[in-house]
């Protein structure tokens, strides 16, 4: 039994090692582009040599290169802005959850207004300088990310925690600077932002630029 097993094993090994050599030897005598059919141990094989060809990617046009560079620059700016403002959007979501929980345990409307005013004062003292230094583009991204993290527009959050009049006032101020506080987040429309955020949430900082770029060589 052991001898039979060894015989079969060595036969299989010989087939695996010898067949390629046999076919290669046969193929060496065949002109390029021609094939021959051989039978080896009851099996039929085709051997031959293909003519070599060079495969190269078409070089992009000057217009495509310019477009690719613009897209790469736009994506790089967007990624920078998302990385800059995303922590603030997460903070807003966390504070909102804390405020909602605290308001449920306060006895009356007066106590709730006092609590909101106190939290607002603390947040302004901590983050006002940072927010004032944001660019208009970063402000727009922040409004979208706040909506992503909370499920509500910034306008609705102000309206719920302050008043309708405050929300309208800040919406008017925002529009002066080109920022619509009623903006909500749509993953499909903001696919580029969503990919950057997901990469950021997974601890990564190496988005594949090639998805938004043409070959620049």
Description:
With 217 residues, this protein is mainly alpha-helical. The protein has 2 domains: 18-55, no CATH class; 63-212, no CATH class. It is 65% helix and 6% strand. It is built from 7 helices and 2 strands. β1 and β2 form a beta hairpin. It is elongated. It starts with a helix and ends in a 16-residue tail after the last helix.
Short structural description:
By secondary structure, the chain is mainly α.
End-to-end C-alpha gap: 64 Å
Instruction: Note the beta-strand portion.
Output: 5-15%
Rough outline:
elongated
The structural domain count equals: 2
Main beta sheet, described? 2 strands, antiparallel
Mean pLDDT over the residues = 72
Query: Tally the helices: what do you get?
Result: 7
Number of strands: 2
N-to-C order of helices and strands: HEEHHHHHH
**Order of strands across the widest beta sheet?**
1-2
Low-confidence stretches: 1-19, 206-217
Radius of gyration: 33 Å
Helix content: 55-70%
Instruction: Give the structural class.
Output: mainly alpha
């Amino acid at each position: 039994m052991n001898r039979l097993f060894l015989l079969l094993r060595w036969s299989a090994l010989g087939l695996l090692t010898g067949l390629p050599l046999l076919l290669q030897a046969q193929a060496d005598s065949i002109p390029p582009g021609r094939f021959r059919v051989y039978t080896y141990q009851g099996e039929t094989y085709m051997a031959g040599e293909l003519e070599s060809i060079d495969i190269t990617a078409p070089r992009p046009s000057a217009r495509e290169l310019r477009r690719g560079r613009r897209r790469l620059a736009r994506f790089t700016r967007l990624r920078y802005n998302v990385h800059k403002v995303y922590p603030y959007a997460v903070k807003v979501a966390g504070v909102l959850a804390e405020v909602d929980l605290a308001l449920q345990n306060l006895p009356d409307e007066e106590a709730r207004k006092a609590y909101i005013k106190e939290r607002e004062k603390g947040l302004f003292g901590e983050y006002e300088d940072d927010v004032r230094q944001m660019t208009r583009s970063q402000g727009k991204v922040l409004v979208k990310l706040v909506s992503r993290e909370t499920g509500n527009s910034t306008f609705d959050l102000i309206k719920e925690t302050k008043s309708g009049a405050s929300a309208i006032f800040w919406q008017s101020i925002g529009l002066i600077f080109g920022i619509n506080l009623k903006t909500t987040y749509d993953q499909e429309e903001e696919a580029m932002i969503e990919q950057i955020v997901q990469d950021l949430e997974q601890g990564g900082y190496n988005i594949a630029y090639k998805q938004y770029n043409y070959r620049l060589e």
